[in-house]
Specification:
The chain has 3 helices and 4 strands; from the N terminus they run E-H-E-E-H-H-E. With 99 residues, the protein is α+β, with helices and mostly antiparallel strands. It has one domain: 2-Layer Sandwich (Alpha-Beta Plaits). It has a 4-stranded antiparallel beta sheet.
Length: 99
């Protein structure tokens, strides 16, 4: 099993309401992926509640193999979520590991 952990830091927004709305859109998009991409065994999206930390969103995805992770990464629905994220992303950190 491969665990794919990604942290996203978003760019500054004109208001907290705008940021909250965009985060909700991203979360909804990502949480819809397991129904569309069969290689996903588990997926969780967390919104950071600790204002002392710099990352805004945590994504945890589980797949069976690195090959499955590649299928997930290239899937059109994942790519569409990525486009929404990239438009407002400041930075990203990722770790993939075997469990």
């Amino acid at each position: 099993m491969i665990k794919h952990l990604v942290l996203f830091k978003l760019k500054a927004f004109e208001s907290e309401a705008a940021k909250t709305e965009k985060i909700s859109e991203i979360k909804t998009c990502l949480e819809a992926l397991p129904a569309k991409i069969e290689v996903i065994k588990a997926l969780e999206v967390g919104i950071n509640i600790n204002t002392k930390e710099e990352y805004d969103i945590a994504l945890h995805v589980e797949v069976e193999s690195m090959e499955a992770l590649e299928i997930y990464a290239k899937h059109p629905d994942h790519v569409a979520c990525g486009a929404i994220l990239r438009a407002v992303m400041h930075s990203r950190a990722c770790v993939d590991y075997i469990v």
